[in-house]
Design goal:
heterodimer; A: mainly beta; seven-stranded mixed beta sheet; B: mainly beta; four-stranded antiparallel beta sheet
Chain lengths: 116, 111
C-alpha cells in the first residue's frame, strides 16, 4: 500500500491567494483527519470525516478554512484567502472506523505551506 | 478528555532501553492510552495502545499501572533512528477517534 498521499508537498503562495491541499487516504479506510502543526501551537486537529461525512470541524480556525471529502478516496482542505499566519505543515491521516472503535491513524508526509 | 503530562526531553544511550513516562491521573475507565512518535519532518507514526493490560508489539512495550493513572513506553533497544518526539495520548471517553496531541517528550538517542 502506498500509504496516505498528500499533494503538494510544498506550497509557497502570497497572502490573499487561494490554497488547496489534497489528500488520498489508504484504500479501505473510512475515517480521514486533517491536522496542522506549527512551532507555537504544536499538532492540532482541524476536522475529521467518517464515511465522507464531516463529524467534527471545531478545530477549523475560521471561515477562511473549508474541507471536503467528495468520495472515499479524496479530500481537500482549502484556505481562501490565505494569510501569513496560516503558514504551517498540514497533515492528513486516515484510519479504519469499525462502528464502535477506531484503529490507529496513519499519517501522510504533510504539506509545508508558506504564505508570504 | 483526560490530560497527559510528559517530561519535555530525555536522553538514552544507543542499545539501552528507553523508558518514557506519561502521567494521566484523570483518565476514566473506558479511555485508551495511545503512543505515537514523530521523527523530524515526518508525519506522526503509531506505536502502540492499551486500555488496562500491558501490551507489546514489534516496536515497543506499554506498561500501564494498575490504577491506570500513569504508563511507560519502553523501547527495549534504542537506536539512533528512534530519536523523535514521543506523544502519549488518552482518547476521549466518547471514542470519537479524536487525538489531542500535547507537547510530547523529545527523546535523543546518543551513540
Amino acid at each position: 500500500d502506498a500509504g496516505v498521499i498528500q499533494s503538494p508537498r510544498h506550497e509557497v503562495t502570497e497572502m490573499g491567494q487561494e490554497v488547496t491541499l489534497r489528500c488520498k487516504p489508504i484504500s479501505g479506510h473510512n475515517s480521514l483527519f486533517w491536522y496542522r502543526q506549527t512551532m507555537m501551537r504544536g499538532l492540532e486537529l482541524l476536522i475529521y470525516f467518517n464515511n465522507n461525512v464531516p463529524i467534527d470541524d471545531s478545530g477549523m480556525p475560521e471561515d477562511r478554512f473549508s474541507a471536503k471529502m467528495p468520495n472515499a478516496s479524496f479530500s481537500t482542505l482549502k484556505i481562501q484567502p490565505s494569510e501569513p499566519r496560516d503558514s504551517a505543515v498540514y497533515f492528513c491521516a486516515s484510519s479504519l472506523y469499525a462502528g464502535s472503535s477506531y484503529n490507529e491513524q496513519f499519517f501522510g508526509p504533510g504539506t509545508r505551506l508558506t504564505v508570504l | 478528555d483526560a490530560k497527559t503530562t510528559q517530561p519535555p526531553s530525555m536522553d538514552c544511550a544507543e542499545g539501552r532501553a528507553a523508558n518514557l513516562p506519561c502521567n494521566h491521573s484523570t483518565i476514566s475507565g473506558n479511555e485508551y492510552v495511545y503512543w505515537y512518535r514523530q521523527i523530524h519532518s515526518q508525519g506522526p507514526q503509531y506505536i502502540i495502545h492499551g486500555l488496562k493490560n500491558n501490551e507489546t508489539n514489534e516496536m515497543a512495550s506499554l506498561i500501564i499501572t494498575e490504577d491506570r493513572k500513569s504508563s511507560t513506553l519502553i523501547l527495549p533497544h534504542a537506536t539512533l533512528r528512534d530519536t523523535a518526539v514521543y506523544y502519549c495520548i488518552v482518547t476521549g471517553s466518547s471514542n470519537t477517534g479524536k487525538l489531542i496531541f500535547g507537547q510530547g517528550t523529545t527523546l535523543q538517542v546518543k551513540p
